[in-house]
Amino acid sequence: MTDFETVDYFTDQSLVADPFPYFEHLRGKCPVTQLPHRGVMAVTGYELASEVWRDNATFSSCNAVTGPFPGLPVEPEGDDITDLIEQHRGVFPMAEYLITQDPPAHTAQRGLLMRLLTPKRLQESEAFIWQLADRQLDEVIAKPSFDVLHEFAQPFALLVIADLLGVPEKDHRVFRAQLGVAHPEPAVGEDREMSKDPLAFLHDTFSAYVEDRRRTPGDDVLTHLATATFPDGSLPPVADVVRTATFLFAAGQDTTARLITAALQFICDDPELQALLRAEREHIPAFLEEVLRLEGPVKTVNRVVRVSTSLGGVAVRAGTTIAIFPHAANRDPERFEAPEELRIDRPNVREHLAFGRGIHSCPGGPLARVEARIALERLFDRTVDIRISEDAHGPAGARHYEYEPTFIIRGVRSLRLQVTPAVGAEVGSDRD
């Protein structure tokens, strides 16, 4: 049995499959707790997690993705290390991306991103998302079983973002191949090998798109991407536009695919829930919020204390790594009644922290919700029954799954499903 008092959360694989008892243990001690390794303070309470997320003046996002690794290269001194963080920001992974930036750089980059993720653009994409869901289902629905994460959800989420950013449809197959979600039937001469550096592929491809549209503007989404300005009206360098596009692919594809996959785990393990959602589709949005609360795809969000402060009555020194555990905060009984239960009639169903809070709240949250809702609706439309493959994962009550072996992401590495197609639903059709 794992000793929760001494276990190293960041490296111990015993916490990967089921970290929830560990989170409960930490919250039972204090909503702000010193971990036994790496000088990390863990935040497990809902209110304090919200406080840290919102207070970017006290807590820097420079280590948002990787937490205590690698850490600052010099020992912090004093009660304000803002200048030290800026001097060494480049040592942190993904330092050039929105997720690790602080104002004012973050303000400018997020402003650029929100000029692309406008409600109008999301609405324009919805018709494509319905059609795409059918196209992706056409690839898998007749199979004896299929891996919903890799064969349906990931290519679906990838191509939604490609369409949102205006990637020409003729290039969609290349994007799938280069990003590791190739079409099951390659075109003649198509290279099936995944790029050795997917981010480099995205950088090179979008650089070419942006430079071309700046030279020769058209009436298309890529032109809008290339000519979008910072909030002050200035035209950003090509590299900034490209980073915005690649960030959407990196952040949006995998998390949305895992939301769809987690939702189907719940649905397939609860026949009554599946029957309810099939019959009363209006409950799907609330159901997805509960999936995000209970099994959101982000397991750990990190911050560095830039200014010594007090958090929940506990003194925290500048330079300390703060680890927020969203799943712990989302199961805080002081915020959510019966927090371990999935309740689609929960009155505060949208108050979870799966998409964060403050200036770093997930800008793609609305898109992820639309994608997941449409994916479930078309699956329900085109099937009579959806079930987990017992050959792959064992019988109900004794399932076995392999989870991503990381402290960053929560989710199964594979989920094989079997479906009974509805009569005449083997091939999709456009939604009216």
Structure write-up:
The chain is an alpha+beta fold. It has a single domain (about 15-420), classed as Cytochrome P450 (Cytochrome p450). It has helices at about 20-30, 45-55, 80-85, 105-115, 120-140, 150-165, 170-180, 200-215, 220-225, 240-270, 270-280, 285-295, 325-330, 365-380, 390-395, and strands spanning about 30-35, 40-45, 60, 145, 300-305, 310, 315, 320-325, 385-390, 415-420. The longest helix has about 30 residues, at about 240-270. The model has no long low-confidence stretch (mean pLDDT about 90).
- Give me the count of strands: 10
| Low-pLDDT ranges | none
Largest sheet data: 5 strands, mixed
The residue fraction in helices comes out at 40-55%
Please state the second-level CATH architecture: Orthogonal Bundle
What is the residue-averaged pLDDT?
A: 92
- The total number of structural domains is 1
Annotation field: number of helices: 15
**CATH H-level homologous superfamily name:** Cytochrome P450
Characteristics of this structure?
single chain, 10 strands, 15 helices, Cytochrome p450, alpha+beta, five-stranded mixed sheet, globular, three-stranded antiparallel sheet, 432 residues
How do you describe this structure in short?
With about 425 residues, this protein is α+β, with helices and mostly antiparallel strands.
